[in-house]
Amino acid sequence: MSDQRLRRLACALALLGAAIAGYLVYVHYADIKPICTIAHGCEKVQGSSYSRLAGIPVALLGLISYGLIFMASLVRDERAVLLAATTAVVGAGFSAWLTYLELARLHAVCSWCVLSAVTMTLLAGVTVLRVLRSS
Amino acid sequence: MASRKQQKEAARAEREARQLADAAATRRRRAMAQLGGLLAVAAVVVGVLIAVSSSGEKTPAPRSQGQGLAGVAESAQLLGGVIERGLTLGRPDAPLTLVEYADMQCPACRAYSEQVFPELVQRYVRPGKLRIELRLQSFLGEDSVTAARAVAAAAAQNRAWPLVDLLYRNQGQENSGYVTRDFVLSLSRSVPGLDEDRLLRDQSGAAAQRMVQAGSAAFARLGFQGTPSFQLGRTGGDLSVLTVRQLAPAEFTGPIDSLLAK
After folding, report:
1. Are B151 and B163 in contact (CB under 8 A)?
2. What value of ipTM does the predicted structure carry?
3. Cross-chain CB nearest to B53 (options A47, A50, A85)
4. Which residues contact A72 (CB under 8 A, 6 or more apart)?
5. Dist. CA B72–CA B53, nearest whole Å
6. Closest by Cβ to B31, choosing from A47, A97, A131
7. Is 0.80 surpassed by the pTM of this model?
């Protein structure tokens, strides 16, 4: 796959992730229940102490990360490729931790969070591949 | 035998191939170094994020206003071990019944809860002389409705009174939107034995709605104009409206003692 295609794929995934995170940020600040396919899982996860990091909603951090990856993927520069990959790998790692918390500590699964974790993991793969190709 | 020209071309081709291979090896090394650096930075950042995330485990979920809950220990001490069923606090066979009509975000109801209720619990409810029934009101605004439904949902688990007590102890500005889902969750986590998942499920259910509507209907039927309002009488008998001039324990202990003495 050419770098052009990888770049487009990264942008598309970042937009998808931003849409998911944006919805969760809206749910948080509007104080409404998220639409959830798993009974009360989203409410439990979103209402837990893990839904914030140093007082900042995790969904907002996700939205910022996806935005950063999207913008970095638009720029044709080696440093931008590295920035996108680093952000995506950090996001994927932290998403893995949050998924572990959902399963092991909260015993609840938020389908939106899982979807975001999968999106971020795919982004990590695509952006790391771009790093390897760009050198 | 190769000519001199052919030997030169072969040597050049070999040199170019070696250069290409060297360049490719350099690119690979550089890519690996970048990837290694990237993974190292990511590992450090993820480690820090996990440490920060875990540091919040020992503290309860923050309230909407980002403050901790007040009076959790005091509330547990006041109501720990007291029998409750639905919206009724105290032994079912207590000789007297006090009915309280209250809105969870009404400041006067909080004043009653702080200044009178603890004495009634210690002096009459714990010894089995009085049972207190709550009739939920929600006319002050949306926060009242949310709080009343949460209490009704807690009543389904026979844990309404600790939640009511914590609602008063953490009462916010009237109709400021402070009774959020996070707020209710924080309170419910501080009530021993209260299943927060079930509470969230039940508070939007028909049973909670019916319980709140029943409280409003009873309030209207008696022609009360404000909260808190009270009725007092013998359990199972007719209850009289208890008119109080001020929210002081004597306004309640006097009539209760009189009825107990009869």
Report:
1. yes
2. 0.86
3. A50
4. A80, A81, A83, A84, A87
5. 24
6. A131
7. no
